[in-house]
Write a structure and sequence with these properties.
Radius of gyration: 19 Å
Distance between the termini: 9 Å
Number of strands: 7
Order of helices and strands: EEHHHEHEEEEH
Strand content: 15-25%
Shape: elongated
Number of helices: 5
């Protein structure tokens, strides 16, 4: 993979899947449960450990940490460019995605789809799409998964 150039991960200006349409309870329940019960329990535990700490020094970082998964599921894109035919990189890309738990769901000469089955995700949510061009692979998916994918392929 010495002749491969990775572009930066760019956030796509579209809404994440959970903001596009009304989420089902199956999708919303784990996140809502974590925010409603987990974060207050974490804040109380941290306050009990250090009661002299001002409460806003505990609450604001805990809320920011609770919203981090939302940022990691926002859609993004990066490109893998090479001097040779891009189809030669598909094997390494496929191996990296399989190691992250993704399965190939659809394939044609110009587009490949991958999906990671998760109980709280359904349909296209969390899916990765790969567009195959002559010297470029354009990868679109959740930002968190794209960062892990770049790390796996870059090694």
């Amino acid at each position: 993979m010495q002749s491969v150039i990775f572009s930066e991960i760019v956030r796509i200006r579209e809404r994440p899947f959970f903001l596009r349409r009304a989420a089902t309870w199956r999708q919303l329940f784990p996140w809502a449960l974590t925010l409603a019960l987990g974060l207050p329990l974490l804040m109380l535990a941290l306050h009990a450990i250090a009661p002299e700490t001002p409460l806003h020094f505990i609450v604001l970082p805990a809320l920011a940490g609770g919203l981090m998964p939302v940022a990691m599921m926002s859609p993004g894109r990066f490109e893998m460019r090479t001097r040779v035919n891009a189809e030669h990189m598909l094997g390494a890309l496929d191996d990296a995605l399989v190691s992250l738990g993704y399965h190939r769901t659809a394939s044609d000469p110009e587009r490949i789809s991958y999906f990671r089955p998760q109980p709280w995700l359904s349909g296209r949510e969390g899916a990765i799409e790969v567009a195959v061009k002559p010297h470029t692979l354009q990868v679109v998916g959740p930002v968190g998964s794209l960062r892990l994918l770049q790390q796996r392929i870059g090694c």
